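Can't attach files on this board, so I'm pasting raw text. These are the components:
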Amino acid sequence: MKTVDLVVIGSGAAGMAAAVEAKKNGVDDILILEKEERLGGILNQCIHNGFGLTEFKEELTGPEYLQRFVDQVKELKIPYKLNSQVIDLSKDKVVTYSNKEDGLVKIQAKAIVMATGCYERNAGAIMLPGDRCSGVITAGTAQRYLNINGLMVGKRIVILGSGDIGLIMARRLTLEGAKVLCVSELMPYSAGLNRNIQQCLIDFNIPLYLSRTVSKVVGKNGRLEKVILSAVDDKLQIIPGTEMEFECDTLILSVGLIPYISLLNYIDCPTSSTRGAVVNQYMETMVDGIFTAGNCLHVHDVVDFVSDEARLAGRSAALYLQNKINNSENKINIKPGNGLSYVLPQFILENSLEDIVIKFRVRRPVQDQIVWIKSGETVIMKQIKPVMIPSEMVMIKIAKDKLVGIKEDIVVSLEDR
Amino acid sequence: MKELTCIVCPRGCRLKVDDNMEVTGNTCPRGKIYAINELTHPTRTITSSVRVSNRPYTLVSVKTDKPVPKDKMFEVMKEIDKISVEAPTRIGQIVLANVLGTDSNVVITKDID
Ligand SMILES: Cc1cc2nc3c(=O)[nH]c(=O)nc-3n(C[C@H](O)[C@H](O)[C@H](O)COP(=O)(O)OP(=O)(O)OC[C@H]3O[C@@H](n4cnc5c(N)ncnc54)[C@H](O)[C@@H]3O)c2cc1C
Ligand code: SF4
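---
Top answer:
Structure tokens for the assembled complex are below.
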């Protein structure tokens, strides 16, 4: 069996940044495996601008952003294989992939970075009520059809879910001549960024209905004919008598992304409430030498943070290969307390080699909060945040010397000021 | 007093502009510039994709290299729809100069070999 020091699975923003950083930190023997025919992942279809403000201090489109990493991969001569899907993974780090030229190949890796991205929740996942008919499509699929294949999905469109991809598609389809009738959001607040509400909906007078969802999909001869929207109460139950009817040929679903981690199931790798793997401060999973970053760890809305997180995974893989990460160090759990939906990393190994960055999301929009990071009665850090919203990931850096002597679980929680 | 959402970065600050064009609520100076532009001559960057004539089933993405007046968005889209290009393409390559006299060029945003 061929051996490789570091195998990177997936070549999106995360995979490429991890590979580049590992190479810069002295790992020479790297292989990137990508199932699609080109490097770059989801960014290939995100032709809108708004990427790179943190990373490159300028506003780029998705393809421009990814090209900067492709250039680095090529410049550093990091080997990659396209059209090569990883189909199996073992605990002792044997990676099985297949492609047309090589057939089915097993390689022994010494370390792995998993960067397989995420997938979209579909009609089945949200138990969309009513007829099963054509014309119901996820936002990312509609985006790929339009931006990669040049195909319009419909002319009169309703969008369910106010996630960023749905908002971006509302604008894109409108500019291409479709009529977007409305965006309907189940929750009382939008899941997308404020800027996208402004530049994708308000700019085009597209109404956003909050606390409203699809109560029935009506098809005729197998094709979508209309969508009924109903208001929901604070328990998210449909309120009878509040129906609104929209005649349309397409219903676009923008109802959430889920980390794509089927490979981790083969190795019994523990996962968390983010649906991604449980990781420590090095982005290492509970399986020795297997690291992860990007949307397969937790769903990100800003690619610059993906690149940053993936660099940490790449750098850590290098440290691991140099035997500098000691997995037998004491583990201290980090737990989400009041007001948080999740926190990352879920645990840290004592004697951290680097400062750590704690990432979390709040459950609902909040104002004037104190973020407490405590271990038992010991306050490790206290920070004041004027505004936090669920669609924006919060990051707080903790210097490694603040963690010296900490033994008990760390809890991150919010308190009103 | 006008209220706006800054669209310059993902933070999306809520801006307030009073009658003397004093801007508050911005976390950084870019928000102030945005607010004043938005109230005097709002502009937007347009992104789209165009056919590559010598590659079957292939599109290449494009953008306006400067924001164009907001009320010209649909007209600019019509001009972009007329474009087709030949591969190879390079990021930054101009495919339509000074679109509709807006002083903005339509440029390629993707390398195709
Ligand atoms: C539609 C959309 C719009 C967005 N808009 C913005 C925005 O405006 N601004 C912003 O900053 N961010 C935006 N983001 C967020 C950001 O772009 C993404 O979070 C980021 O690109 C994700 O990178 P990734 O590498 O984790 O995942 P991906 O880019 O999805 O990469 C995963 C890669 O792994 C490959 N893969 C998966 N499984 C296997 C396997 N078994 N074998 C081999 N390869 C495999 C996939 O083919 C893919 O190429 C957007 C995201 C989406 C989805
Ligand atoms: S004011 Fe500055 S920080 Fe706030 S959204 Fe605008 S650019 Fe971003």
